[in-house]
Amino acid sequence: MNDFDYLDEKSVYLDAACQSLRPRPVIETLDQYYLEYNSCGERVKYPWGEQTDAMVEAARQKTLKLLKLKPKDYFVSFTLNTTYGINLLLNEISSEFVQKVFTSDIEHNSPFLATMAMAQRLGVPRVVLKRNVDGSLPLDENFAQAVVVVNCAANFDGRQLVNLKNVVKKVHADGGIIIIDAAQAMAHYREMLEKTEADAICFSAHKMYAPSLGVMVVRRDLTPKLEQNFIGGGMVDDVFADHYLLSAEANKDHVHTIFEAGLQAWGEICAYAAALDWLSARTRADKKRLESCTQELDEFLRSNPKIQMVGEQANPTMSFYVEGLDSHLLGAALGKQGIMARTGYFCAHYYLDKVCKYPPLIRFSLSYATRESDIERVKEVMRKI
Ligand SMILES: Cc1ncc(COP(=O)(O)O)c(C=O)c1O
Prior knowledge:
Layout: E1 12-13, H1 24-37, H2 47-66, E2 74-79, H3 82-92, E3 100-104, H4 109-122, E4 126-129, E5 146-151, H5 164-174, E6 177-181, E7 200-204, E8 214-219, E9 236-239, E10 244-246, H6 247-250, H7 266-280, H8 284-302, E11 307-309, E12 317-322, H9 327-336, E13 339-340, E14 342-344, H10 349-355, E15 361-365, H11 372-384
Parallel strand pairs: 1-13, 3-4, 3-5, 5-6, 6-7
Antiparallel strand pairs: 2-8, 7-8, 9-10, 11-12, 12-15, 14-15
Helix pairs in contact: 1-7, 2-7, 3-4, 8-11
This protein binds pyridoxal-5'-phosphate (PLP).
């Protein structure tokens, strides 16, 4: 059965790096929550609430299982998106642990700006490391008393942090804190994150076939280094006139509440659990189809001498410009033919605009929803244009 059967033949959705299309089982789980057991999680005693609680707990457990991390070492909190998770962490890591902030040149504005804000707020230096062409991070720096925030896949050409495990090891050996932005990695290369012992991994469920939601996977031993400065309902076990008892401190099973102020997106969390099942069930054939669509479109684009690709390897997320043609105009022309692609700098302004000095680009990002016929359609329309 095709889980994207609601997509008509003429609609070619190539914007999965922003948010993927949602497969039917995910949409149905969200519907089911609203139609059958709409309730607040982790608070209510009536039966609908019990069902929500079971789904939410499953979502937390499935996340750790997918990443092969142990619940005794890690916990999962939900937020709004990757940006929110990274900002929350950087705002709460106590200044006594931060003498320097590191990020890299190929980051999305999300960590790029959040690290800038942190360094400015704490009055500490910020270093933008230059990633190698293969996506790896050079490790000659000393990361003592440093916070390092880097992505494990870029959002314009999918370039990966191929030395991820060594980066984490080195930052820890030096005595620093490492936060991984996994926004672009979870949908299609989550294997690279398995058993990654970073202090935190932040990602967006909406880029991995789930509803709009942020996910934070955090090491339990990071929490003593945090200062709680964003707080509200759902986080406390008791409140007095001028102090309170944090649920996270009262019960280690409630540690996830330290990042979950106020009512959460319970229905979205339930549907995220369904998306994790759906992702885990992708077959070799699904992966092969995505690979061959990627290969075919990449070869088509690279074979045109007027097309300049970003990056050197084929990847489901590909960016380029056509010499002498404005990418925004091209994007609009493609849009009129039903081809949905992004134009501009995709929130990676620093690298694409200031470092590489590219003109505005166009990005095709493929997914498991991409059909062979979509690629044929793109080729046909691009040839005409
Ligand atoms: C690598 C990367 N990091 C962070 C983000 C920010 O994600 P969100 O807008 O969901 O917070 C994105 C979004 O495209 C991204 O691609």
